[in-house]
């Protein structure tokens, strides 16, 4: 069967120190509560935009749009603070995520640039407010994290740098999603 579509998203890769920390943290939490499903360390990233199923012949235009958006933004420093949050909220979460501190406005500007460029080629803008975050676990059903998280001594990551964004392909399988970088786009230096 010939592949005609790819499931795509745009994101920022993170240092191994960060991805392994969050994976180990959520793995430990999952031993206490099996509803918690850790994201594999190699899949932990910061999502800029989920594009979804895309015809292969449209990827060139998407690459050009991302490149245009990336070259308008300077590389920047950011931090991940020692706090976790959840979607839709912390008391009733289906997703657990790491919180961005410094760099939030820069990620928001990067998102806006990407949205504007992709809209020019017919990709709809996101209706929800963009919150830069790092998804670290998903839950099979909603869970209240308030008591669980109070027991943790969370680590802060300072002085990280965002100098590129990636176009990823998400390949779904019975074991979960696997992410593959299709192309890297460097920000202004």
In short:
With 189 residues, this protein is an alpha+beta fold.
Could you explain how this protein is built, in words?
With 189 residues, the protein is of the alpha+beta class. It contains four helices and nine strands; from the N terminus they run E-H-E-E-H-E-E-H-E-H-E-E-E. The chain has helices at residues 16-32, 59-70, 104-119, 146-150; strands spanning 5-13, 36-38, 45-55, 76-87, 93-100, 133-143, 157-162, 164-173, 176-186. The termini are far apart. 29% of the residues are buried.
Strand order of the largest sheet: 2-6-5-4-7
Mean pLDDT comes to: 94
Structure classification: alpha+beta
Give Rg in angstroms: 17 Å
Give the biggest beta sheet.
5 strands, antiparallel
First-last Cα distance: 43 Å
Strand content: 35-45%
Helix proportion range: 25-40%
Number of strands: 9
Order of helices and strands: EHEEHEEHEHEEE
Stretches where pLDDT is under 50 for at least 5 consecutive residues are: none
Features:
26% helix; 5-stranded antiparallel β-sheet; alpha+beta
How are the SSEs ordered, and which strands pair?
Blueprint: E1 5-13, H1 16-32, E2 36-38, E3 45-55, H2 59-70, E4 76-87, E5 93-100, H3 104-119, E6 133-143, H4 146-150, E7 157-162, E8 164-173, E9 176-186
Antiparallel strand pairs: 1-3, 1-8, 2-6, 4-5, 4-7, 5-6, 8-9
């Amino acid at each position: 069967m010939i592949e005609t579509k790819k499931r795509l998203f745009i994101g920022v890769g993170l240092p191994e120190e960060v991805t392994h920390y969050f994976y180990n943290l959520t793995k430990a939490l999952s031993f206490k509560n099996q509803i918690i499903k850790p994201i594999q360390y190699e899949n932990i990233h910061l999502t800029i935009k989920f594009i979804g199923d895309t015809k292969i012949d449209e990827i060139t235009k998407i690459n050009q749009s991302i490149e245009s958006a990336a070259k308008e933004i300077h590389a920047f420093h950011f931090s991940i603070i020692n706090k976790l949050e959840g979607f839709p909220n912390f008391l009733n979460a289906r997703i657990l995520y790491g919180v961005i501190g410094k760099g939030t406005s820069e990620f928001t500007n990067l998102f806006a640039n990407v949205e504007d460029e992709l809209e020019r080629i017919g990709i709809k803008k996101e209706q929800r407010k963009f919150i830069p975050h790092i998804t670290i676990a998903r839950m099979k059903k909603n869970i209240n994290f308030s008591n669980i998280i109070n027991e943790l001594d969370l680590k802060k990551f300072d002085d990280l740098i965002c100098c590129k964004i990636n176009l990823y392909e998400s390949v779904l399988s019975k074991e979960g999603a696997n992410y593959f970088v299709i192309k890297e786009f460097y920000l202004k230096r």
